[in-house]
Amino acid sequence: MQDKKQLFCFTYAGGNKSFFDEIERDLDGIDVIKLEYAGHGERHKESFYRDFDELADDMFREVKDRASSKFALFGYSIGSITAVEVLRRIMSSGMKKPSHIFLAAHEPHTKSELLGFTSDELDEWVKERTVRFGNVPEKLINSKVFWRTYLPLYQADYTIIGKYEFEKLNLLTTIPATVFYSESDTPLCDMKQWEKYFKGIIDYRVYEGNHFFIKQHHEEMAQVIKNKLGVVA
User: Fold this and answer.
1) How large is the average pLDDT for residues 145-158?
2) What does the pLDDT look like over 185-202, one tens digit per residue?
3) pLDDT tens-digit profile of 90-109?
4) Alpha-carbon distance 105 to 79, whole Å?
5) CB 216 within 8 A of CB 209
6) What confidence score (pLDDT) does residue 233 get?
7) For the CA atoms of 73, 76, 81, 83, what is the dihedral angle to 10 degrees?
8) 3-state SS assignment for residue 141
9) Contact at 8 Å (CB) between 99 and 229?
């Protein structure tokens, strides 16, 4: 029996690895490895990253230690930045390259506007955005305990995103890529900017919904992933 193909998953800002639980159930035949950022989820006792290099170095070590001969990367939202930075480290390290990279819900655009917020303004922006995207259960929207727990995660993640400069991303590869997006969230014209870095085949897959369209379309997205990785369920 051949080893299963691996899919390393990187989550969104403020999220934890359980975000991929639903699509994992659809990805039968694939070894789904959901990675956790420091300070989040099961690693909540660890310190937050000071910049994106710290995050990417940490995630690269995880991939390097656990990758088999057949693996792919999947980044959602901020996880897309993580995925390309991990890929850059893989390529410069000399280790075997992934067979495919999946990017979702994040265009290659520097978010320096996030650095213009005061701490209170960022908190309000995060609250409004997260509630609007339906990522907070209704019973928790006005919970001070909930926001005391989660706002620091968003604060930390959005701060390092604001510092991240796509103009300095030194990456050119022919590794095939699949880009998942919603036109109302990250329009195709913006997502096509990934072609600056990916010079091979890029397949764009559009879905209805907001930033978290994966919630409604995880089955369809899983089928695309299985097809791309040559997994027959």
Assistant:
1) 91
2) 999 999 999 999 999 999
3) 999 999 999 999 999 999 99
4) 9
5) yes
6) 61
7) -10
8) coil
9) yes
Sign of CA dihedral 95, 76, 101, 4: positive
Pair of tokens at residue 73: 């990367």
Q: Which two tokens stand for residue 66?
A: 């656990």
* 3-class DSSP assignment, residue 7: strand
Q: Which residues pair with 5 in a beta bridge?
A: 30
Alpha-carbon span 65 to 17, nearest angstrom: 18
Per DSSP, helices labelled H in 42-176 are 52-66, 78-93, 119-132, 144-163
d(CA 22, CA 75): 15
Q: Find the distance separating the first CA and the last CA of the chain, reported in whole Å.
A: 15
Query: What's the rounded Cα separation, in Å, for the pair 43 and 59?
Result: 13
Q: What gap in Å lies between CA 89 and CA 83, rounded to an integer? A: 10
Q: What is the DSSP letter of 41?
A: G
What token pair was written down for 158? 């959005």
Using a pLDDT cut of 70, give the percent of the chain over it: 99
What is the model's pTM? 0.95
Q: What is the largest CA-CA distance in the chain?
A: 55
Residues 217, 175: Cα–Cα separation, whole Å: 25
> What one-letter code names the amino acid at 211?
H
Q: What's the alpha-carbon Rg for the chain, to the nearest Å?
A: 17
CB atoms within 10 A of CB 127: 16
Query: 88-124 as b/e, with b when 16 or more CB fall inside 10 Å?
Result: bbbbeeeeeebbbbbbbbbbbeebeebeebeeeebbe
